[in-house]
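Assemble and predict.
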Amino acid sequence: MNVELADLTRRFGRTRAVDAVSLRAGPGVFGLLGPNGAGKTSLLRMMATVLTPTSGRMRLLGRDPGAFPQRREIRRRLGYLPQNLGYYPGFTVFEFVEYFALLKEMPPGQVSRAVAAAVERVGLGDRARAKLRTLSGGMLRRAGIAQAIVNDPELLLLDEPTAGLDPEQRVAFRALLREVGQRAAVVVSTHLVEDVGAVCAEVALMDAGRIVFHGTPAELTARGEDSGAAGDAPLERGYSAVLSASRTAAVARS
Amino acid sequence: MKDEVDLDRVWLGVAAEVWRRRPGPVERAVGRALRSPGLARALLKTPSLLLGWVIASAVVVSVGWAATLTTGTPYVPLLAPAVAGAGIAYAYGPGIDPAWELAASMAVSDRMVLLVRALAVFGLNAALGLAASAASGTAAALTFGWLVPMAAVCTLALAAATVSRSANVGVAAGLAGWALVVMGGWSATGSLVAAVTVTSLMVPYLLFAAVCGAVAWYATRIPRRTT
């Protein structure tokens, strides 16, 4: 298993952003769905080893991120696209991706070629020498994706990766995800249900820090059948039905 | 076909060669010294080592040097710790480094980046202060005169910045702490520069720097166990 989480919890003051989440994910594309504030980003940040869990256990790529040498090995094999991608405006696309390839401790002799390949894979070959400050939001997002895949990661974590991408770019991006997902675990956090339906083999739905559904997109779709839940597409109706049921149950418990 | 050329591979080789950035001599030397090209690149991207900041630091110290020459009061030893403390607080962290979150997920540890950057900023400011002090004729007792208080102010700024995860808080703590010590020394002895000339303060400065360094070290740790 590339990702093993057991009762993972993260508190910010009195708020439980992530509440006793248990998950296992192997190679393939795993979708993390949920409304804003559900805890998706906090969960992804913990998996990216940027945020420390308050409690619970986590193993990534068979290693314990709490131990420095193992955390370093995980990070060498990790690709991460944060929700808010910070960037250096004066860097070119190539320099930006190269910078993170170096920080991932890729062998220096392989860096240039790997960076060129990553830049081409996200369709930014014609803007490789353009300064980041001159790029559109969608292009910046693609530069962020390029740095995430430059080391051919075994675990790829993407937080809202399709934000700012136009429909054509989203289709190309989904193809890229399918390709990477053949040999790596790809965890995609999104609130766009159609992205999940198109590429994910498994999906978890989060609400209020908890996982309220875990299954396949087809199973999520089935939850919406005859439920009368809101939504324009079957998967959206499944999403709404699960959320509605979970919130009703939470109110009943309290 | 047997002799078919893989044009994609060829293109990637060409693109890598055409697009790549050639590191300058400083970056190459730093990379060799640190045995990490990534750490070298991270060091050269230190916000408080960028040209504008270095020029601003040099201007402040130069003003201190000019004031020292004209008034006879050694302002350089009073200014240098404040400038260095601000520089260290602005060396690394959320809100300072645009791609901090991404950098924090990298194999080159962010603690190592912080350490290397903090040492570089301290070294640069020490060199600026030494040059200004020497030029203004106050080079005597330099080490015990202000390098030790500067270390204390820098570690205070670093500790406050890492604990609060805010460079501005780090700067405020460093400047406020130093101002308190200078004003306290002034009111107690009547000398504005008592904070850097009273030798009995040096051991407390060193102890304080050690405590602040330990706090910064603790604040940047990742717990070994999560349960």
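Chain A has a mean pLDDT of 91.
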